[in-house]
Amino acid sequence: MSSLDQDQRLHPSCPDKTTVSSDSSDTHELAEKPLQGLRLASHEVLEEAQQKGRLKCSKCGGSRMFFCYTCCSLVGVNQEEIPSIKLPVKIDIIKHPNETDGKSTAIHAKILAPSDVTIYTYPCIPEFETDEAVLVFPGPGSVTVQDMLQCLHDRSDRKSHDSLDEPDPKRRRSEEALGATHIAEDLGSRTPDEAKGLESRVYPLQRVVFIDSTWNQTNRIITDERLQALLQVELKMRKTCFWRHQKGKPETYLATIEAIYYFLKDYHELCLAQEYSGEYDNLLFFYSYLHSLITKAKVSAGKC
Ligand SMILES: [Zn+2]
After folding, report:
1. What's the 49 CA to ligand 1 centre distance in angstroms?
2. d(Cα 145, Cα 142) in Å, to the nearest integer?
3. What's the 59 CA to ligand 1 centre distance in angstroms?
4. Cβ contacts of 53 within 8 Å, gap of 6 or more
5. Is Cytoplasm given among the entry's keywords (predicted)?
6. Closest CA relative to residue 92, chosen from 46, 149, 133, 32
């Protein structure tokens, strides 16, 4: 354990009951299950890197293991050795300037899906189209992933109504009659421009925004009017496996990488209406490995 990042070390007071002991309480069961049965690339490369210990980041000189959270680059591991994931939507992560980088799991997403993930440091955030982007954050006005697309359609309709550029009602009706699945099949027979236009009507979601900060710092970001304009989406109740369980916070407060993973899984099943076969499991490639290390350390320390 000595070679692990300070922040990745087991905290003795951590109330997380994720263990492989004979503890059969409900807490144990629920905390243990989410990371089981994932379709993950082999962790061998991480095991080897861990044996080598911490190395200096070639860019900033910091002592790191697996990746540098400051430079967002791999350390002691090659890009070809780790999984690379293509996501169905772009992910924008907004992090609080005071967030300690070493604690953040947002970097996992950027490293594993580099072409689809962007990390911004608040208050620097991009402009969003309110009918193409959603913010994953629980709140009084938030909707479920299941209802999300309809809400975006409604926003889009309002927008085009406001701009007096109403869609052709005949075409609209025929699209509705076809249903999403048929339209998706139909996309192949259209010109790229036609298909793109139609696709954006069926699958309007382009960008998904996550906030990466401690619970207390989130308030400043969430009240920003640029984000207030976005549709808020709430994930189903999920229990965190996060080993740095934040004191006093509910167990449903997910680590950023967990939230991204669960969102995409729901999106795949509920919005794209496709069977999920582990497409995004490797987003948890580092997370599950670090989690298993913590678990082993707890067991050997006799904490459970
Ligand atoms: Zn670095």
Report:
1. 16
2. 10
3. 5
4. 3, 65
5. no
6. 133
Report in angstroms the alpha-carbon separations of 68 from 47, 65, 104, 290: 17, 7, 12, 15
Q: So where are the chain's domains?
A: 6-144+206-300, 149-202
The pTM assigned to this predicted structure is: 0.76
The CA distance from 218 to 249, in Å, is 13
CA atoms of 147 and 128, how far apart (whole Å):
20
Number of CB atoms found within 10 A of residue 245's CB = 21
| Burial of residue 34 (number of CB atoms within 10 Å: 0-12, 13-18, 19+) | buried
- DSSP letter at 254 equals -
Distance 102 CA to ligand 1 centre (A): 11
% of the chain exceeding 90 in pLDDT: 51
Of 24-33, 203-212, 261-270, which gets the smallest average pLDDT? 24-33
Other CB atoms within 10 A of residue 291 CB: 20
Tell me: the pLDDT tens digits for 54-80?
999 999 999 999 999 989 999 999 999
Of 214, 95, 89, 63, nearest to 149 by C-alpha is 89
Map residue 212 onto helix, strand or coil. strand
